[in-house]
Amino acid sequence: MAHSSWRLLAACSGVVGVLAVAGPASAQQLVPAAPADAQADVAGPYSGHKLVRLPAASRRVMAAIEDLEADIWTHTIRQMRPIDMRLDPEQFVRFLDLGLEHEVLAEDLQRVVDAERARIAARSMQDDVTWYEEYRTLAEYRDRWAMIAGMNPDLVATGVMGQSLEGRDMPVLHLNGDGRTDKPVLLINACQHAREWVNPAATTFVLEQLVAGYGSDPQITRLLDELEVIIAPMMNPDGFEFSWSDERFWRKNRRDNGDGTFGVDLNRNWNVGWGGPGSSGNTDSQTYRGTDIFSEPELQVFTSYVEGFRDRVVAHLDIHTYGQLILSAWSYKFEPPPDISYYDAVGNAMGDAIFATNQERYTVGQGAGTLYVAGGTAKDYGYGELDALGWTFELRPDSASEGGFDPDPDQIIPTGEELLQAVLVLAEELAQPLRFHLEPQPRRVAIGEAFPQRFEIRDGVDALDPASVVGFFRASADESFVEVGITPLGDEDFAIVLPAMDCEARGEFYVEASTVGGDSYRFPADGAFEQRAAEIVATFEDACESVGGWTAGLPGDDASTGQWALGDPEATTAQPEDDHSPDGVNAWMTDPRAGSSAGSFDVDDGATSLLSPLLDAAPDLGLLDAEAYLTAHFWYSNDKGGGPLNDELLVFLSNDDGTTFEQIDRLRGPTVGWEQKRYRIADFVAPTDQMRLLVIAYDTRTGSLVEAGVDDVSIEIEGCTPHPADLDLDGELTLFDFLLFQNLWEDGDPRADLDGDGAFTLFDFLEFQNLFES
Ligand code: 0X9
Ligand code: ZN
Fold first, then answer.
1. 701-704 CB contacts, 8 Å cutoff, 24+ apart
2. Is the pTM for the entire model greater than 0.70?
3. Mutate to test the pocket of ligand 1, among 195, 243, 267 (most ligand atoms within 8 A of CB)
């Protein structure tokens, strides 16, 4: 667990006050009486700056604090999670006027910074403090990198990629065991953001551990023989230097913007998604994107250096603090990248390896949704430009109360250990001869229909011979495997065609593939994947051609335009020309009319609700292992207009006729045309015959264009018709079915009159025996 260094410090000097306020009030009333010495601000750039926590982020709160232009430290802005931010004295006064409930984590950040400085100065006198037990200056880092390289000339090559804006050298280190220069490259860059002092420290720790392990640790030796690891540990030397010399919480580079402000956020200056949401055009913003794509020399230097080996880069890690996150592309949009399931698989493996190290949890997911949308970041360059797997790592700590950008330096080594384990897991994945990945499988596929299960085979350190891919299948464990067809889907994508299966069959399959060199590999390496099948019975189908039992608009709705209505949609830039169904023309739309411009009938100023008729998700079909699914088709557009990507489409489900609702989905970005969504109802609520679907579209900010649609809604039940002799419906024929039959027969229950002659005779018993054996 990370130390709460500020709390400790603050508690000692008595400067932390917790204020909870509700409703507007003036600043004067809110500042608690405090001892005079605690009130007096110490001199320095952060004099009187406060670190403030808002207990629960909500759209209302976010909109309210937007104008403050505060330095928001919590990069995990999620609904209902706390937000921490630094406010200068003037911003704090304006903040108090908002009357928001909050907590002051640090009364005067200058004291925090001064205490840190005093500690560092004292430690420099102690010779029992090892290198990674304290934060280091740029000069100390340069010495360290030079020493690491100097002592390991056969493994490490150092160089200077070029110079920063202020003319400082930008270092790079290549780790290459056997010296081959045709190998896949794992590219790591650190410290785009100056104040994130744990970030270059942990990265240098990883560098040093890899170098130390080469030749002694068999795994590291093998990985550095199979791959080249290229590390740019200091992307923002000017900003980093400035964070030591002047402003500890400096983030950007040191660009003179010519208007009295300084700095471009390097992590908004990359080319992919540049200029989009989550970046700012205001020069004094912490996320100022610069005047153009790659306007900053630091990124020009890095990207031209990478040109020298760009085709070999297979993964690109951009290291940051803080928040304990592993974020994949895309970050500039919500749309999942084509490789999302592979990203998740490798990301989760890294997260698990981190957890196994020191039991710290890192959250894994796509950047845009897991954190926030940000245009022009490094990982989107890695993915979109280099065609490599791009990730942002947000290292320790988890939150501002655990030190934020400035945790106790005893966090450096454990953070480095965690990052090292993640890097090793990733390197193992990249260093395989071929990299197999199975796309997520459905729980059960339809009986009697062949099913193409998708998988991918990426080149690892060897290249795939695409003609070599073969698949094997068996319908149950007592059969032997037979070869089945493989469909190439282009690039690294394939499908294994699983033959039609009986209900509840447990099919098994695996794949074999060879490298161009003729080495053959099996996937999975041991055993086989399983695939089951079931009957799929639609019990409700609504093409949304007539109003039926739907309700458009509910009490409490406050949208002034764009209310839900059934109709044939008229195309705008944000609304489709056609409904989803092939037959018919209508769909539920947030006003199907186009009007004179796209903004005429979109959702404005609030929420609009659409409620389905009563749906039966628990019909008695007598199926074994029955499971209900809800399918609906959505259209959603929220990326057009002046305030893009601010709104959401919320989907809820009730199983008690609308008394209570459970949220089952939240669409935060636009759909790609009409999008099908299929929900396993039991994942959210127990299926009943009292289900209702509720869809709420809302608009919170001016300027955003919001349009939504719902079409083709159905309920499907998956399950299997039981064997006629499976009287206890447990999916198996056992002695209990026999005993049950005997009871029914003795009771004269019609179910036991199997020959249907109205009498309970020995023939019924014989018939049951036949069924049982069939
Ligand atoms: O905002 C950033 O540049 C990164 N966070 S930080 O606190 N280190 O500044 C995160 C960028 C990650 N990408 C996404 N938001 N998707
Ligand atoms: Zn950062």
1. 701/63, 701/643, 701/646, 701/647, 702/642, 702/643, 703/641, 703/642, 703/643, 704/638, 704/640, 704/641, 704/642, 704/643, 704/644, 704/646, 704/647
2. yes
3. 267
